[in-house]
Design a protein that fits this description.
With 525 residues, this protein is mostly helical. It has one domain. 67% of the residues lie in helices and 2% in strands. The protein has a two-stranded antiparallel ribbon. The longest helix has 29 residues. 45% of the residues are buried. One of its GO terms (molecular function) is secondary active p-aminobenzoyl-glutamate transmembrane transporter activity. One of its GO terms (biological process) is p-aminobenzoyl-glutamate transmembrane transport. This is Transporter. It comes from Anaeromicrobium sediminis.
Length: 525
């Protein structure tokens, strides 16, 4: 089997480049400290720019139909004053608790915890992959990996691990399975058939950024859903293409001795099969109930005018609808296989599901304060107006602007791996800026997600990489074989490039065809 180590000389320049990125990235502070620092910077800038008399004048559209736009002048507010600090102290708890992404992510993680912690997702993924013919395993593994972000971090790791185990059992190179599963799971953060916690989290941040500027546009968790469904097919194709045309040839994949005992270890048990059947039946009943409450005229989920889009109880209530869906199928599955023995087990499982979001709850504290001060200072408005004017002067609206933003996201992603942390920084600036260029918050968000998803797997700071190295080391056939950061990144780079190109071309096509990005969501304002 060909090892990445053997390519060391030809890749020395690339490896040196990666090491430099790693050194620079390691010097960046923790996201918590990063937002504390950004808050201090905003406070100081507000003082200095206020004293310098910085302001901006622009035409603002009226919220009342028929009224002409009004000329508004906005000045930088000095936050280091009684007027700036008194509300901050008085509303400290309210600012944190009322932070839009906080409630969304907590609710979604509790619901998703029911399908993750009971083992439903694990069993479904194993059944899907093991049930596929050997020649289709790569494609099925890709589809499963793409949709594995429903389980967040656990899905990323599980797909790589099960990919290695199943490829080995089928007589194929386990490294190929690990690489395929890990790559697909990363691409899945902008491609999925289902709505996950990531969608709720990012849309919450988008809502916060849009609301601060009075932007009237949909910001619900489904704003990128149509694009994500289409992207699932694109990423599946690209994953299989890169795996079969590059990874297989690079690593070698010629052994065809099927290990039946290993396959048996991962086989779904009869009890798990029964649990999946019952969970599937519950899902169908639940979807049927939603349709009954949505389709008929005057039904519960329609708005007062009898419509569904752009706003209705259905679109506004998508988070609780998804919460009850995950909770229902998770409880039925857990009860069937015996994980849930009494009602006392349900809150414990929900608690375990919420534990995965604890790091975000901590980072959200300084992040909420940063967003609060950023809006209050009027720097958001000034940056958005000046940025929009600058972009107009460059005459690079539309596609060139979108591509520039995607590339900016890919570069930042090499140094700040947290998707929510980056969006918390970028959304307050680019959502208003893009809206002034006539582009919707939904388009801004999906452009950001493309850059973020495409380069997650090649970031040397990703905390997934050490885990993937550990999984690879389980299948070492030679003690001299070395698996390191350079190994993973070099194997992931072709996927990263393919995803970046594929996602971008898909968005360009979406733009020219002016297709809705999600229910009731337009590309343009």
């Amino acid at each position: 089997m060909k090892d990445v180590k053997s390519e060391g000389n030809s890749n020395s320049r690339f490896s040196n480049f990666i090491r430099r990125i790693e050194i620079i990235g390691n010097r960046l502070p923790h996201p918590f400290t990063l937002f504390v620092g950004l808050t201090v910077i905003v406070l100081l800038l507000s003082y200095l720019l206020n004293k310098a008399g910085m302001s901006v004048t622009y035409l603002a559209a009226s919220r009342n139909a028929g009224e002409a736009p009004k000329e508004i002048t906005v000045e930088v507010m000095n936050l280091l004053s009684y007027a700036g600090m008194r509300p901050f102290i008085e509303k400290f708890v309210k600012t944190y608790v009322g932070f839009a992404p906080l409630g969304l992510i907590m609710t979604m993680m509790i619901g998703i915890g029911m399908v993750e912690q009971t083992g439903l997702i694990n069993a479904f993924m194993r059944k899907t992959i093991l049930g596929a013919p050997s020649y289709m395993v790569t494609g099925v593994l890709a589809i499963v990996g793409i949709n594995a972000n429903l389980a967040s971090d656990a899905g990323m790791i599980f797909t790589a691990a099960i990919g290695g185990a199943i490829f080995k059992a089928l007589g194929r190179n386990p490294k190929v399975g690990i690489v395929t599963g890990f790559a697909a799971a990363s691409g899945g953060f902008t491609a999925n058939f289902m709505i996950a916690g990531t969608d709720a989290l990012l849309s919450g941040i988008t809502e916060s950024a849009a609301g601060g500027m009075g932007i009237q546009a949909p910001t619900h968790p489904l704003i990128n859903w149509y694009f994500m469904i289409a992207a699932t097919f694109v990423v599946t194709f690209l994953t299989v293409l890169v795996t079969e045309k590059f990874t297989v040839k690079f690593l070698g994949d010629t052994n065809n001795n099927v290990d039946k005992s290993s396959l048996e270890e991962h086989k779904v048990t009869e009890k798990e099969n029964k649990g999946l059947r019952n969970a599937g039946l519950t899902a169908l009943i639940y979807i049927g109930l939603i349709l009954i409450l949505t389709v008929p005229e005057g039904s519960f989920f329609r708005n007062a005018d009898g419509g569904i889009l752009p706003k209705s109880t259905l679109t506004k209530g998508i988070v609780p609808i998804l919460f009850f869906f995950f909770a229902s199928v998770g409880i039925v599955y857990g009860k069937t296989i015996g994980v849930i023995k009494s009602e006392k087990d349900i809150p414990k499982i929900m608690q375990d599901g919420l534990s995965g979001s604890l790091s975000f709850l901590i980072v959200a504290l300084p992040a909420s304060m940063f967003i609060y001060f950023f809006k209050l200072s009027n720097l958001t408005t000034i940056l958005a107006v000046n940025g929009a004017e600058f972009l107009k002067a460059l005459n690079i609206g539309g596609i060139p602007l979108i591509i520039m933003f995607i590339l900016l996201s890919t570069v930042i992603n090499l140094f700040v791996t947290s998707g929510s942390a980056k969006w918390l920084i970028l959304a307050p600036v680019f959502v208003p800026m893009f809206s002034m260029m006539g582009l919707s918050p939904a388009l801004t968000q999906v452009a950001y997600r493309i850059g973020d998803s495409s380069t997650n797997i090649i970031s040397p700071l990703s905390y997934y990489i050490p885990v993937i190295i550990g999984i690879m080391n389980q299948y070492k056939t030679d003690e001299s074989e070395t698996n390191g950061i350079g190994t993973v990144i070099s194997l992931m780079l072709p996927y990263s490039i393919a995803y970046l190109i594929g996602f971008t071309l898909l968005l360009i096509a979406w733009y020219f065809l002016n297709i809705s990005l999600g229910p009731g969501v337009s590309i343009f304002m």
